[in-house]
Amino acid sequence: MRKDNTLYVVIPCYNEEEVLKETTKRLKDKISSLISKKKISSKSKVMYVNDGSKDNTWQLIKEISDKEKNFTGITLSRNRGHQNALLAGLMSAKNYADVIISMDADLQDDINAIDEMIEKYNDGCDIVYGVRSARKKDSFFKKTTAQGFYKFMKIMGVDVIYNHADYRLTSKRVLENFSDFKEVNLFLRGMFPLIGYKTDIVYYERAERFAGESKYPLKKMLNFAWDGITSFSVKPIRMILNLGIIMFLISLLMLIYFLIVKVTGHAVKGWTFIVTSIWMLSGVQMLSLGIIGEYIGKIYSETKARPRYIISENLEEVENDSKN
Ligand code: UDP
Ligand code: MG
């Protein structure tokens, strides 16, 4: 079916000098074996993206790309974070490749899943998500926070693929469509499902970080989750609106109670007026905030200017092509 595909493996690197040599060694074997099995073209490459590292990462990437035919790199002017670095890599790689796989530098994503991903691509999938089947090697803390993250995202109305990070295969056309997504607050794993096409999942076991330490401390992870929610969901705004409605309804019930207290003569003079005002006004205020929030939510999705649709096939074009 789809033969002679050029594969680019995009890897963002931030202070990864400790792992790069080993990553290069293993990927070199993988790429050569795929080339010799004629699964990918000999022009296939690994593209390292240096995300403004403070150590020798970029120096190392340059050395590797000089020495190795199937390795190349780009560097960002400063540290912009994992998601931006990954996007930079994907957008550059799509100019040279037919298929692009993104993964981390630390060998936590099992590179043997690449074979299966390409298999699925050959079966006609445009996006193949790598999903962690087990987290045996993750620390208890990482495991619970990461799983909590996916569950919380679901509750907050963000459609993410459970236990899928950024290990994924995409076709060139997906990335071309992707360049129409102009948003600045990136949460890539939530954006790809918006594109559509035929997709599939490949399971793999997540290994331990090969060397060095996680570049995602808890603070960065919380920021990332917050970005995911606020870039994908208006649920928090709806929660305010719902709270307003509930408070207003309660204030009506309270009103009845206050009147009973007054009628039975248990109320101090002026008390009924004050408590009724507090409950009703707070309810109305919260409700108004929610309504204003709804409009802000609309403005927010308009300013993101996401594409409204993506055409996957156009028979008109096919006919014209065959006539020419
Ligand atoms: N990374 C990056 N820029 C950053 C932070 C991380 O490019 O500001 C890269 C990092 O080099 C690695 C990937 O993002 O290739 C994932 O980071 P890490 O493995 O530390 O995250 P974890 O697996 O602990 O969630
Ligand atoms: Mg990692």
Descriptive account of the structure:
It contains 11 helices and 7 strands. By secondary structure, the protein is an alpha/beta fold. The protein has one domain (7-232, 306-323): Alpha-Beta Complex (Spore Coat Polysaccharide Biosynthesis Protein SpsA, Chain A). It has a 7-stranded mixed β-sheet, with helices on both faces. Helix 2 links the parallel strand 2 (45-50) and strand 3 (71-75). The chain is elongated and about 95 Å long. It binds uridine-5'-diphosphate and magnesium ion (MG). Residues 104, 106, 108, 209, 214 line the site of magnesium ion.
Write the layout of secondary structure elements.
Blueprint: E1 7-13, H1 17-36, E2 45-50, H2 57-67, E3 71-75, H3 82-93, E4 99-102, H4 113-122, E5 127-134, H5 140-155, E6 164-171, H6 172-178, H7 188-195, E7 199-205, H8 218-232, H9 235-263, H10 271-304, H11 315-323
Parallel strand pairs: 1-2, 1-4, 2-3, 5-7
Antiparallel strand pairs: 4-6, 5-6
Helix pairs in contact: 1-2, 9-10
Uridine-5'-diphosphate (UDP) is lined by residues 12-14, 16, 51, 79, 81-82, 85, 104-106, 108, 214-216.
